[in-house]
Known about the structure:
Number of helices: 3
Number of strands: 20
Distance between the termini: 62 Å
Strand content: 35-45%
CATH architecture of the largest domain: Sandwich
Number of domains: 2
Amino acid sequence: MYALLLALVILLSNLTLAYIPDLTLIIQTDKENYSRGETVKIFGQVLFGGQPVNKSLVGIQVNNPYGKAIMYRTYFIYELELPSVIEGDLNGDGYVDIFDAVIIAVAFGSEYGDLNYNLIADINKDGIVDIYDMVVVAIHFGEGTSPHTWRIEIIDTFIADYYGRPVNQVKRGSQYFIWVRFKNNDQSNYINANITYTICDSEGNPLYSDRVTQSVPPGGPHEFVSAFIVPDDAALGTAKIYANAYTNLPQDKGYPHCPEKSSSFEITSSTESQGISSLTTQQNVSGYYIAFRLKADMQTGTYTAYATAFYHSGLIILLSYNSTSFTVS
């Protein structure tokens, strides 16, 4: 019996670190060659024993011809489209519970601009966290499905001014700051993580990507803050931030720690009326799919898209890795 248990421990340990041949990750583009101004579509599936799997995380990184990442994304493949976002689920884990109530309690009584003001706690977006926001959580308390606990979890992401105040409108050519908040759900161990974000404008043009590597202490929230200057040629309209966490970068065969979080903001020619941005969560899809546009000034040459898949099969973690390339002329 001892030998059997030892063999099982060794097997689980190896599978946690190994890329399993039976888990196949397909990645492809709709074309091999693109011109500037065209849209690149990247899509695929995760297969186990030749059959599509669900509840799998797929991390995607796209590098330009010089090896610089222009995009990081994570998709959570699910067998059915998840229900719409539950009102009162402030941390986006699909379940309204005490953790959502605590978010409001910490910010209770604060107004927009106060140090303890929390955009997420202000459910009705009236600029103050009050009893009306708390009632929403109370009404929906217990709704949803108790979530899977991710070791590293992205809490939220938003764009803010110099003082860390969230804004929903930004001006071309001006500097702002991207905030990514995350936590370590392991109560006793530090966990290595690559925290990334990508900004795309309203036309799907990747504007900027950045990352930080950290040994994340237990608990949280922890924060990654990065300066961002809005390009003068960024398309006007609704832009999006996509925040992700990986064990290592997909190009280095790192896999996602958790699903991504995203938020929106408006790029305008002026900032006459700044307000509060609203947080959104990525919808789950069958398979995975991303699309982005090649700006007129994108570098020509060969681009590489890297993908890694993370899949739980019982107690065993299965990993898979693949890549593909396309040219821009």
